[in-house]
Amino acid sequence: xxxxxxxxxxxxxxxxxxxxxxxxxxxxxxxxxxxxxxxxxxxxxxxxxxxxxxxxxxxxxxxxxxxxxxxxxxxxxxxxxxxxxxxxxxxxxxxxxxxxxxxxxxxxxxxxxxxxxxxxxxxxxxxxxxxxxxxxxxxxxxxxxxxxxxxxxxxxxxxxxxxxxxxxxxxxxxxxxxxxxxxxxxxxxxxxxxxxxxxxxxxxxxxxxxxxxxxxxxxxxx
Length: 222
Description:
The chain is an alpha/beta fold. It has helices at 8-13, 15-18, 21-36, 89-102, 113-116, 142-156, 166-170, 191-194, 204-214, and strands at 39-40, 60-64, 120-124, 129-130, 161-165, 182-186.
């Protein structure tokens, strides 16, 4: 079963989801796709977003849509790429905003595993994709699963900072209890949105840290 690398607390929280028929069909589809085609991320990294932090440790959620579909890019965390890989345009704009917002220098590596280890859930709505075929694994059940993850976090935890970037992510707001959590919204970091003034200057990274420290939590080292 390809869910073996999940943190055990996530396995426990989501065990009912794993037993549902849609999830069994989804895993059958994914395993078949990986046998027949080149797909991303590597099969052992499909659930990477759930590996580095326990369910209890999640403080921030960033929602993406699809994994990168080019060779060696996707590593299981939304917007993230493997070490040594050229940074995609959206990630470049994310790092530029971090730099101007809180002064952290632009990093060499685009691997956001370091964020995940601090309690940032970097969740794509669809966790797999066929090479050079964006959206190819949409509508197969991943969205049902990741919506269930968001709803479980919303219902069982408090004071998570949800960062919703772009129209797709903003649609997930309906899954979140806005009285129990903090929602930061802006345009998407893609060049199309950012160059129209919908991304740069949103100061989400400093706002997030102010919320976290105001509750006595550690800030994120972005």
